[in-house]
Amino acid sequence: QVQLVESGGGLVQAGGSLRLSCAGSGMPFSINAIGWYRQAPGKQRELVAAISTGGNTNYADSVKGRFTISRDNAKNAVYLQMNSLKAEDTAVYYCNAGWHDGEYYYPTNYWGQGTQVTVSS
């Protein structure tokens, strides 16, 4: 079965850093990308960053220059390095298995359980 497990969330002061990890297993052959999403209470879930097996990446405008997404193929893991964190980054962060066509990321309903990131101001 498909399994996605996030880790690395926590409480950090504004200006600090966190590194989130997403470990995947049982992925269908058709899955070629992973996306990081976040959702704050009362707000819609939004794409933060995505990366494909071919190295294509996408970032939300609000995190460009602060967040970096990367892969470790040997460990079948995807990471999200978050620097210069702001209070508005506070949310539950989820990883998603999906597809990338070279320009856009397309999510599926394969989701991790989520990890809480809280940034104090």
Overview of the structural elements:
- With 121 residues, the chain is an all-beta fold.
- The protein is built from no helices and eleven strands.
- The chain has strands spanning 3-7, 10-13, 18-25, 33-39, 46-52, 57-59, 67-72, 77-82, 91-100, 105-111, 115-120.
- The strands form two sheets. Strands 2, 4, 5, 6, 9, 10 and 11 form a seven-stranded mixed β-sheet that branches.
- The radius of gyration is 13 Å and the shape is globular.
- The N and C termini lie far apart (40 Å).
Topology:
Blueprint: E1 3-7, E2 10-13, E3 18-25, E4 33-39, E5 46-52, E6 57-59, E7 67-72, E8 77-82, E9 91-100, E10 105-111, E11 115-120
Parallel strand pairs: 2-11
Antiparallel strand pairs: 1-3, 3-8, 4-5, 4-9, 5-6, 7-8, 9-10, 9-11
Query: Radius of gyration over alpha carbons?
Result: 13 Å
The shape is: globular
Order of helices and strands: EEEEEEEEEEE
The low-confidence runs, each spanning 5 or more residues with pLDDT under 50, are none
Report the structural category. Answer: mainly beta
Largest sheet: 7 strands, mixed
Which features does this protein show?
single chain; mainly beta; 121 residues
In short:
The chain is mainly beta and 121 residues long. Helices cover 0% and strands 57% of the residues.
